[in-house]
Design brief:
The structure holds 3 protein chains of 3 kinds.
Chain A (H helix, E strand, L loop, with lengths): L4 H18 L17 E6 L8 H10 L8 E8 L8 E3 L17 E8 L7 H5 L5 E3 L5 E3 L9 H5 L6 E2 L6 E2 L5 H4 L6 H5 L5 E5 L6 H8 L2 E2 L11 E4 L7
Parallel strand pairs in A: 1-11
Antiparallel strand pairs in A: 1-9, 2-3, 2-4, 5-6, 7-8, 10-11
Chain B lengths: L3 H15 L7 H4 L1 H24 L13 H7 L8 H7 L1 H7 L9 H5 L3 H5 L11 H9 L14 H4 L28
Chain C lengths: L11 H24 L10 H14 L1 H7 L8 H4 L6 H35 L3 H9 L8 H34 L12 H27 L6 H32 L4 H9 L3 H25 L4 H27 L1 H4 L20 H21 L22
Helix pairs in contact in C: 1-2, 1-3, 1-7, 1-8, 1-12, 1-14, 2-5, 2-8, 2-14, 5-6, 5-7, 7-8, 8-9, 8-12, 9-11, 9-12, 11-12
The chains are: A alpha+beta, B mainly alpha, C mainly alpha.
Amino acid sequence: MEITRRRLLVLLPGAAVAWKFVLAGTPEAAPNYKLTEHWWAMLIDIPKCIGCGSCVRACAEENDVPEGYFRTWIERYHVADWKIERPEVESPDGGKNGFPPHADDGGKNFFVPKLCNQCADSPCTQVCPVGATFITPDGVVLVDKSYCLGCRYCIQACPYGCRFLSPKTHTAEKCTLCYHRITKGLTTACCEVCPTGARQLADLKNPKDPIHEFLRTHTVQVLKPHMATGSKVFYNGMDGSVR
Amino acid sequence: MLGIKEHCAILGADVTGRYGAGNANLFKDIEHLIRLVAVIAIALVAFVILRAAVVPHSFGQYGHYRGAAIGEIASRPVAFAGHDTCEACHTDVVDQKKLGKHVVIACEACHGALAKHVDDPGSVQPKKLDTAIVCARCHEANSAKPKNFPQVATADHSGGIACDTCHQPHRPKIETAKTETEGKK
Amino acid sequence: MYPNEVELQWSILIVLYPFITGLVAGAFILASLERVFRVEAVKPTYRLALLTALAFLLVAPLPLQLHLGHPERSFEMYLTPHRSSAMAMFGFVYLWYLMGVLLLEIWLDYRRDIVVLSQTERGWKRLVYRVLTLGSRNVSERSLGIDERLGYFITLVGIPSAFLLHGYVGFIFGSIKANPWWSSPLMPIVFVFSAMVSGISAVMLLYMLSTRLREKEIDMRCLDKIAQYLLYTFVIDFSLEMLDLLQRIYEADESFRSLDFMVHTRLWTSQVIVQILLGTVTPIGLLGLTQILRLSDIARKRIYGLAGCLTMIGIFAMRWNVVIGGQLFSKSFLGYTTYKMAFATREGLLTAIALMILPFIILWILVKLLPPWYESDSSPGSGSAPAHGTS
């Protein structure tokens, strides 16, 4: 069925009004967003990830990520037999263009998407000498690029390797959980385009959030729990070999 | 050239003789230290004034960082419109997708970031997709993909021709004949 | 490797920085041996050690500034220091050490000379000295006595301050739980002792070189004493490093396999050959020889010179192995990368070489401005450094 001019005249004003809020310049202009009402997290469902790389590409486009650096990436694991401490891992160009085909070689094979874990007790914010990286009251770790010195201490301190120095701004950069989207009622770019729902945004202060419910009822893990970072990216169905 | 010792001997009488012992002269004997303390005090005051002038006003609003940064970061323009916005206009595609497995896939997952198209639907058109590439990203067979996920070795399956030769991307299962106008204006 | 880990974050400039601050701390400890512990033999090097420490301390922030993405914002560390950050707090430790300890001690020790020189020199030098007097020309016995006591107190405070200065650099690395090569409670202590080794060795070499250039006799009693302290400190430093290594090998935790492989491949030359064999075991052996055997003055001088040079190379290699080594392996413990050192860029080898030469130029200026010795002296052991108050 075609979009007739009449339908457009009916639909467009409504869409335009909704869009105005999406394009709102500041959280204040999206008047319903209150910092203290949210505590953001993410769920990654490993058995659902197909390694298509859509998330990596979408993130790069949404956030102008410089070529060769990654705010999110995918790793492909191969675990031979019982050798859980010695997996073979690859991440060609961060998985941006998918992965080359592999024949089935016995042993476990799976994909693991990774991103900034938005740690509640993050070591990166602890070591920043000037307060250029911080956790917001709604649980997102951000970098103030007009204040960052580019000393790279935070990049050294992150146990997950999710930070890098932007060659454009010469400041530290990393996944912002698409803060400019989630504060406007949208989801992150990576979650938006994930075809299988392997990546889902969660709001831990919202009791009605289905992902929050999922976390309460399923066996989930975080990366490197011994680091006690208060990581808020939860992995469902993650194998013990994941580093 | 005279050494330091010789100089001291010459000046000693002038310099040291002037100041005798006694409490009244304690001040004179620590005069250099008082001057030093004064220099340090001036430097400290200058620092405090500089700090008040230079540190951004919103610093410390929510924590040890510039509070205004939160607003700045949140005000970045979006590139992906989000499937809700697409579905507001393209209801025919929505009806199509509801009949198949691709209902769960966001429009921009395949069509790319289209916020600009939402802003100005008339002049900004989405690019035509090459299905041989787009579909293979998800459906090319790989041992690491979940076993129950539909995947094919495209070389054997189609010989590399465009997937939409046979499949309708919005409703991929081949059940009925493909119609040409679906999804387009 | 995680994709963002392939490129190294901290370059050779960050290797240079702990090396330079180490020289500062070590030179100061040597100076304090004379002042506080009354080790008379090393008196000829007292002022030289202080000036060496100052020359290097002034250069120390430069590699950091050149490394920053935004050096123009570096003052933010003093304006809004993040109290939980070791790096931010170090900014204040550095400031305290420069202003409250080193400059103050040098000023108090040299004050009489400065006042005299402000009246005898001519031209622009006169202006410089007059500014340094802060307007006071009092050099009475009592004021000098007050200076002496205050200087003693400052040196007393300065010793833990020197430990704090370089221990803090060690803590900057040692507190990073994400990096098992760095994360260790021993790190600040190892850094302090290796700093003392490099500092003592640097002053020893500078003393030998400067005395030669001035065509004077080297005070062998002084030199022997310095070499002795170098040996003792070196033995402690080596023991600490070996303790760390043995414990790692024995416990063999998650990171061990990856680190072990790295040392055997990427770090073999710089760690085993240069740092341990050439830079630690050999100098300790050479210095030990001079303690055990009766050797002639010339033989001892040659050994001290050789041992000193090898020590400097070894301690530099140690900084390299810590900083660069800590970034060559992946935090997943499943991969490795390489350090591609640039040459003529802001963080390249050429810059590093220039930054290592600069302190010597500054030292030369300082020596001209504030001579650590008297021109009229020709015989060794006659107290060629100015007397401290009552000695």
